[in-house]
Structures are given as C-alpha cells and as structure tokens.
UniProtKB/TrEMBL annotation:
Source organism superkingdom: Bacteria
UniProt cross-references to Gene3D superfamilies, sorted A to Z: Jelly Rolls
Name of the protein in question: Cupin domain-containing protein
Stored SUPFAM superfamilies: RmlC-like cupins (SSF51182)
Organism: Candidatus Dechloromonas phosphorivorans
Length: 128
C-alpha cells in the first residue's frame, strides 16, 4: 500500500499541529516486538543480491514506514513495482526487494525478530 501525505485524512487541526491518520494500515498482530528503524540509503542501492538465499530471494519481513527524502521502488514476487517518494507513508508486505532511485532517508517499523534475521543475512553477504 502506498499513500501520499495529502491523501491521509486530517483527524485534528489546530494552530501549529495537523494530525493525520490512516487506519487499517497493516497488521502487526502476532509479530511480537517491533523495531523502529531509520535508514539512509544512496541512489543505486539494490537489495536483490543481498537477499539471495532468503526465502524466494526476497525480504520476508513486513515493514511500515515513512520516506523523509528520496525515492525507492519495491518489486514483489509477482514482479509488481511500487515507488514511494518523500512524504509517503508505506507498507511493504513480506516478499519484496528494494531499489533506491534517489538518495533516501526512511523511518520504518518492523517485526524485530524477522527483520534482524534479514539484516544479519545481509551482513553475512557483504562480509563474504
């Protein structure tokens, strides 16, 4: 799911603050601890080779996040591409690869156990 900031409903607006909320934005039930993540990524980064050896050669961890700046494109198992840009909220379901189109900074929230497995796998790939 991709949604721009302006498409998120304003729930409250007062001087100095605008509160927006998108309900039903994924389900974290049963995932246990969630990790908050802040990634700074350079244009051209592609996770495809880093995810080789994981199930389906893709990240199988869901992520909920926000793009602070830049642009990223995900590809799912069916080959469907979705691009997120600065000020977009996003949900990436399990089964994806990521390519950084423009230097980017993102904040993500992920199931800690599942994403730690993926991060450790990437570290091992880079260290090999």
């Amino acid at each position: 799911m991709r949604i721009t900031k302006d498409e998120v409903d304003i729930k409250m607006q007062i001087p100095g603050a605008v509160l927006r909320q998108r309900t039903d934005f994924g389900d974290a039930t049963g995932f246990g601890k969630i990790s908050g993540e802040y990634f700074s990524l350079s244009a051209g980064v592609d996770t495809t080779p880093l995810f080789q050896g994981l199930e389906g050669d893709m990240c199988q961890c869901p992520h909920w996040g926000f793009v602070l700046r830049g642009q990223l494109t995900t590809t799912d198992a069916d080959g469907v591409h979705e691009t997120v840009n600065a000020n977009d909220l996003f949900y990436w379901p399990p089964g994806h690869n990521v390519k950084v189109d423009e230097d980017a900074e993102i904040v993500m929230f992920s199931p800690q156990h599942e994403h730690s497995h993926v991060i450790n796998h990437m570290i091992a790939k880079v260290s090999a």
